[in-house]
């Protein structure tokens, strides 16, 4: 019936399309096939009102033939009118024929539709009867089904009951089997036994009031106790690796053993294990030698990196693992774990420290740094668990670094001493005649450069400790304190200080008692070195250090550069003073011996300058050359040498035992005293062993002062004959001739020589001075 | 002038003896009296005609007895001899004559005896036994130590024992001191750079400080209160303090002078006061508290301290003095060759320079009170 209706619908649709097709083929005014129909059936007023009222549109609804006619008539020419008329006639005919066709077609469809409706009416009546039938049948079926199910219900219940019983029985069976299984597995697979027991336990506990169950429970308990016992034994005596240990303890925990006791056992086991590892590590270390008598400990079997690697992988790894499982097993309560781990870690640190102490040599710093780095990284894991150890570990690393820095300092010192030794040797080496040895400036340059180079190299090594990729470099200690305290203060400043001290030591030290005194040239060299340090090197080194190890603002106070400079200057001053004293003493000694050993009373008339005076002048010239190599010329008293020379000759002739003898006759000794006193009133007091300045002239003046003062004092201790006096006169004049140019102020030389002459005259039994011209003659000849 | 000595036997008046050095005139011994209350200096002159005086010392027992070392000059030779003299009675106790007529009133020393040194060489110095009765003297002649007994009230000197220093190098003694300790059985001598100690009974060397100074040792002195302590000075401008039991290292070294130090003297009663004279024309008074016999800081033992507390409760309150230079005296224009403390007044000292100027100075009052209180 449904198919019929569908066919009818399709027919209606089919009727529409030919119409459209015919409209299309009609062409011309029929633009849209449905348009006219639509307009015809549903006159859309809206559309009508909206369309422009064009009465002339022949297809429009407002067509007005009259208007059209008038319009056409008035507008079109005749030919067009005729053509139009013909066209309209054709159109009208075509429309008529279309109408007829449509009429035919639709009539047929109406007929068939009427037939269909009639047929449907008949069918529906038949269907109603069948539906009733069906309802009756269904009722019958449901009734019989109810009957069947009622019949089966009893059986079903019994079946279900049976199944339940069976399950129960199976469980019971399992329960009964529990002891057996437990027994079987307890030996081999304790874990499975435990699982089994855990499953059975609840049930057994629940039904423990039943005697049979209790028996089972008891038995299984016994087995489990046995198992626990075995596990315990295992725990106690066997050497387990951490994993087994953990398992073992875990099982025991499941067996509801007291955790307190277990944790203790666990720790003791772990302790034993760690001890063993520590012992293994310790075995690598050479025997500790408390007495320190062993000359040199044998070199360690493996290098430090290796040692640290092994230590961290074995000991630290195990410790971490154990600590982790402890936490997992016994919860977060680490009250017992912490001291345990701390104690072990402390021992480990101690071992490592001993090993580090073995790193005596300078070895490879990068290796050490890497070792320490690894140690630090590995330890970090442990430290999360053991916060107290962090400080200790950091301190250990810091100590090691510090130790290394100290060692570098010592190495630097040794190096410097070595350099000094070389310099000494170079100075002491006999020079083949004609071939000049290395000059002092060269030696100085070599020394300074090599020391500076070494210092730089050491700084570069030490910088490894603060390299970016090293983990511990980010510790606050390494950022701040290490840079400042250890490197800047402990290494650089300490080295400079030590250098100054050592240099000073040459001046202050054992020079006069026992140990061989340093050669004067070395003193001079060191003085120059210290001075250079003061002028430039210290600030350079400090800048370099501060660049490489930037100090923190809040860091500990640092030694300022100026303080070091002052120290270096002090050392330089001391050395130079000492140089002057040593050289002066050498010359003075010569003069003293020459004065003391000569028989001044019985000497003959002087013919020559004494050889010792020539020697003195030679020596002082040599010193002049030596000092000139290293120090600047310096400033002379602004006074032209000419005028002072003249002043001297006038002065000396007026008061010294010169040509104008009358003032020196024995009758007027008080006059000379007076004169000398008046002269002294106007001259400055001369400090003989006074500090000198850093220039050649000052140094030489110092030496000359010392020499001449000695001559003066020695002459005063002697009693001279006439020729003795004359000899002194000659010698004095000779010295005056040759020494004035070395001194910064000739008046010093003059004054001292005048005093020598005056004292000689005073000490003379028969003071008859020599003719000045003769003196000059002798001196020029000499 | 180089020779200066306090009159050792005199304990009331401040009196110094100065010997002159002149080649061409008669030499003199000037007796200088200082009247502390009136600040007046009195001078009496005694002629010493035999030669210029290089060293002078007075008997500790008899105010009137003086020993000198003097140069006897002949045409080709200079010989240093020693003799013991007696002053005229009226000068002995320092009669206060008017100073202006001293020159007209010069008197002559009475020769008691010569110390015969023809066999031994030049006399460097004469030392009296410090605590003795003025009967024993020791003289140093070249490399010999001669011990003399004065007999018949010093009219005769008998050589009782002698010893000679033998060896290489410069062996002439330059100076010596007789230790007041050990019952006066020890002396110390200096030759070249070495200081030696001797036992006067056996005349054997008991200790030797080799290279005590870098250069010549000029003078010595014993600490009057600490028996093993000795001060020395020399050409290296240093003053060193030694413990004779350990002679490898000096206990203390002073480097204040800028030229040779010719003289060093401990104060007789306050041994922290050290007087030094040098050819840089300076006299320096130093306070060496740390090695003196006076209690100093924490160096005092506890029981000693408690003793001290009983006596000087104020000692604790005072700040301990540091070793320091108390004063530098620059009155001299020429080298100072001798410094001496007065034997009568422990706060007074004299210094003598080459040009003959004698300067008498006092310890600064503030320091004096500090030490006394």
Automatic annotation (TrEMBL), chain A:
Gene Ontology annotations of biological process type: endocytic recycling; Golgi organization; Golgi vesicle transport; lipid transport; lysosomal transport; protein transport; retrograde transport, endosome to Golgi
Primary location group: Golgi
Signal sequence residues: none
Keywords: Endosome, Golgi apparatus, Lipid transport, Protein transport, Transport
InterPro entries given in the database record: Vps51
GO cellular component, one term: EARP complex
Source superkingdom: Eukaryota
Start and end residues of each stretch annotated as Disordered: 1-41
Subcellular location: Golgi apparatus, trans-Golgi network; Recycling endosome
UniProt xrefs under Pfam families: VPS51_Exo84_N
Comp. bias (Gly residues): 8-30
Quaternary structure, from the entry: Component of the Golgi-associated retrograde protein (GARP) complex. Component of the endosome-associated retrograde protein (EARP) complex.
Role: Involved in retrograde transport from early and late endosomes to the late Golgi. The GARP complex is required for the maintenance of protein retrieval from endosomes to the TGN, acid hydrolase sorting, lysosome function, endosomal cholesterol traffic and autophagy. Acts as component of the EARP complex that is involved in endocytic recycling.
Family: Belongs to the VPS51 family.
Designated name of the protein: Vacuolar protein sorting-associated protein 51 homolog
Automatic annotation (TrEMBL), chain B:
Keywords annotated in UniProt: Repeat, WD repeat
Highest taxon of the lineage: Eukaryota
WD repeats: 210-246
The keyword Repeat appears for this protein: yes
Pfam families cross-referenced by the UniProt entry: Beta-prop_EIPR1 (PF23609), WD40 (PF00400)
Annotated stretches, region: Disordered: 300-319
TM helices/strands, residue ranges: none
PROSITE patterns: WD_REPEATS_1 (PS00678), WD_REPEATS_2 (PS50082), WD_REPEATS_REGION (PS50294)
GO biological process: protein ubiquitination; regulation of cellular localization; regulation of transport
Domain spans labelled EIPR1-like beta-propeller: 2-285
Annotated Basic and acidic residues bias: 309-319
Annotated family: Belongs to the WD repeat EIPR1 family.
Protein name (Swiss-Prot/TrEMBL): EIPR1 protein
Organism field: Atrichornis clamosus
Organism taxonomic ancestry: Eukaryota, Metazoa, Chordata, Craniata, Vertebrata
């Amino acid at each position: 019936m449904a198919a019929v209706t569908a066919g009818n619908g399709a027919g209606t649709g089919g009727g529409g399309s030919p119409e459209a097709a015919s409209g299309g083929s009609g062409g011309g005014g029929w633009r849209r096939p449905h348009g006219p129909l639509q307009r015809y059936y549903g006159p859309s007023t809206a559309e009508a009102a909206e369309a422009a009222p064009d009465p002339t549109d022949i297809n429009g609804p407002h067509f007005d033939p009259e208007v059209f006619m008038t319009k056409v008539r008035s507008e079109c020419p005749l030919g067009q009118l005729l053509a139009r008329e013909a066209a309209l006639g054709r159109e009208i005919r075509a429309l008529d024929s279309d109408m007829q066709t449509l009429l035919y077609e639709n009539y047929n469809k109406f007929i068939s539709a009427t037939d269909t409706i009639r047929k449907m009416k008949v069918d529906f009546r038949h269907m109603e009867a069948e539906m009733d039938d069906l309802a009756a049948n269904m009722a019958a079926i449901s009734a019989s089904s109810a009957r069947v199910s009622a019949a089966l219900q009893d059986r079903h219940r019994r079946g279900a009951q049976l199944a339940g019983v069976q399950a129960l029985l199976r469980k019971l069976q399992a329960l009964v089997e529990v002891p057996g299984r437990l027994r079987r597995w307890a030996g081999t697979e304790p874990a499975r036994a435990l699982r089994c027991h855990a499953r059975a336990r609840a049930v057994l506990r629940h039904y423990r009031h039943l005697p049979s169950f209790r028996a089972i429970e008891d038995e299984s308990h016994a087995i489990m106790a046995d198992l626990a016992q075995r596990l315990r034994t295992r725990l106690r005596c066997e050497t387990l690796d951490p994993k087994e240990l953990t398992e073992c303890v875990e099982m025991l925990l499941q067996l509801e053993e007291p955790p307190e006791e277990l944790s203790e056992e666990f720790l003791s086991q772990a302790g034993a294990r760690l001890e063993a590892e520590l012992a293994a590590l310790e075995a690598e270390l050479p025997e500790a030698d408390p007495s320190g008598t062993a000359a040199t400990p044998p070199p360690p079997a493996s290098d430090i990196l290796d040692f640290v690697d092994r230590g961290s992988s074995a000991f630290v790894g195990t410790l971490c693992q154990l600590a982790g499982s402890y936490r997992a097993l016994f919860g977060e309560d680490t009250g017992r774990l912490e001291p345990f781990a701390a104690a072990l870690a402390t021992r480990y640190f101690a071992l490592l420290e001993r090993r580090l102490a073995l790193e005596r040599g300078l070895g490879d710093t990068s290796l050490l740094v890497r070792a320490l780095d690894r140690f630090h990284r590995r330890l970090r894991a442990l430290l999360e668990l053991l916060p107290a150890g962090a400080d200790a570990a950091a301190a250990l690393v810091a100590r090691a670094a510090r130790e290394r820095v100290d060692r570098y300092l010592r190495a630097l010192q040794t190096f410097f001493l070595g350099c000094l030794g070389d310099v000494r040797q170079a100075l002491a080496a006999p020079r083949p005649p004609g071939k000049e040895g290395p000059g002092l400036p060269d030696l100085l340059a070599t020394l300074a450069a090599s020391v500076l180079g070494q210092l730089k190299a050491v700084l570069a090594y030490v910088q490894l400790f603060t390299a970016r990729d090293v983990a511990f470099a980010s510790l606050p200690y390494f950022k701040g304190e290490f840079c400042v305290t250890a490197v800047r203060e402990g290494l650089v400043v300490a080295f400079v200080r030590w250098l100054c001290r050592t240099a000073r030591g040459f001046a202050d030290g054992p020079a006069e008692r026992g140990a061989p005194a340093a050669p004067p040239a070395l003193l001079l060299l060191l003085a120059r070195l210290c001075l250079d340090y003061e002028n430039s090197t210290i600030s350079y080194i400090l800048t370099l250090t501060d660049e490489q190890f930037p100090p923190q603002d809040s860091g500990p106070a640092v030694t300022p550069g100026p303080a070091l400079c002052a120290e270096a200057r002090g050392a330089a001053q001391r050395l130079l003073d000492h140089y002057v004293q040593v050289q002066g003493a050498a010359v003075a000694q010569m003069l003293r011996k020459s004065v003391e050993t000569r028989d001044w009373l019985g000497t003959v008339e002087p013919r020559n300058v004494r050889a010792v005076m020539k020697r003195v002048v030679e020596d002082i010239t040599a010193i002049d050359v030596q000092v000139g190599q290293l120090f600047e010329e310096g400033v002379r008293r602004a006074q032209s040498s000419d005028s002072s020379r003249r002043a001297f000759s006038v002065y000396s002739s007026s008061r010294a035992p010169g040509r104008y003898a009358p003032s020196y006759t024995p009758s007027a000794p008080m006059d000379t005293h007076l004169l000398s006193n008046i002269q002294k009133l106007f001259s400055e007091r001369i400090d003989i062993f006074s500090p000198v300045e850093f220039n050649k002239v000052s140094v030489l003046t110092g030496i000359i002062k010392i020499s001449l003062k000695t001559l003066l004092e020695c002459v005063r201790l002697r009693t001279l004959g006439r020729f003795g006096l004359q000899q002194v006169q000659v010698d004095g004049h000779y010295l005056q001739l040759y020494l004035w140019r070395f001194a910064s102020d000739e008046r010093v030389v003059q004054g001292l020589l005048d005093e020598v002459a005056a004292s000689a005259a005073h000490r003379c039994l028969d003071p008859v001075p020599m003719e000045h011209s003769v003196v000059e003659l002798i001196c020029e000849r000499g | 002038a180089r020779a200066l000595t306090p009159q050792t036997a005199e304990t009331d008046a401040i009196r110094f003896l100065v010997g002159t050095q002149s080649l061409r005139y008669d030499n003199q011994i000037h007796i200088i009296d200082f009247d502390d209350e009136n600040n007046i200096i009195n001078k009496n002159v005694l002629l010493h005609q035999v030669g210029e005086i290089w060293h002078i010392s007075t008997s500790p027992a008899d105010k009137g007895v003086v020993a000198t070392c003097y140069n006897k000059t002949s045409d080709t030779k200079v010989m240093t001899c020693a003799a013991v003299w007696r002053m005229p009675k009226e000068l002995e106790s320092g009669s206060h004559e008017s100073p202006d007529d001293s020159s007209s009133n010069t008197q002559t020393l009475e020769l008691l005896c010569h110390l015969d040194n023809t066999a031994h060489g030049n006399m460097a110095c004469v030392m009296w036994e410090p605590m003795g009765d003025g009967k024993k003297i020791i003289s140093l002649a070249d490399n010999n130590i001669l011990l003399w007994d004065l007999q018949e009230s010093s009219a005769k000197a008998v050589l009782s024992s002698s010893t000679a220093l033998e060896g290489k190098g410069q062996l002439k003694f330059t100076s010596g001191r007789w230790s007041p300790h050990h019952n006066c059985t020890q002396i110390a001598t200096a030759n070249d750079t070495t200081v030696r100690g001797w036992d006067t009974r056996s005349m054997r060397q008991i200790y030797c400080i080799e290279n005590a100074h870098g250069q010549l040792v000029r003078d010595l002195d014993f600490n009057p209160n600490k028996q093993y302590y000795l001060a020395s000075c020399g050409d290296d401008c240093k003053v060193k303090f030694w413990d004779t039991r350990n002679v490898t290292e000096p206990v203390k070294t002073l480097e204040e002078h800028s030229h040779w130090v010719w003289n060093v003297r401990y104060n007789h009663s306050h041994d922290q006061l050290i007087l030094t004279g040098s050819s840089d024309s300076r006299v320096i008074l130093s306070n060496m508290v740390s090695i003196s016999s006076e209690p100093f800081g924490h160096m005092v033992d506890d029981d000693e301290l408690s003793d001290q507390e009983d006596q000087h409760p104020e000692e604790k309150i005072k700040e301990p003095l540091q070793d320091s230079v108390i004063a530098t005296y620059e009155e001299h224009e020429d080298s100072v060759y001798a410094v001496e403390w007065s034997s009568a007044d422990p706060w007074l000292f004299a210094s003598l320079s080459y040009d003959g100027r004698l300067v008498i100075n006092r310890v600064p009052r503030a320091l004096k009170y500090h030490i006394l209180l």
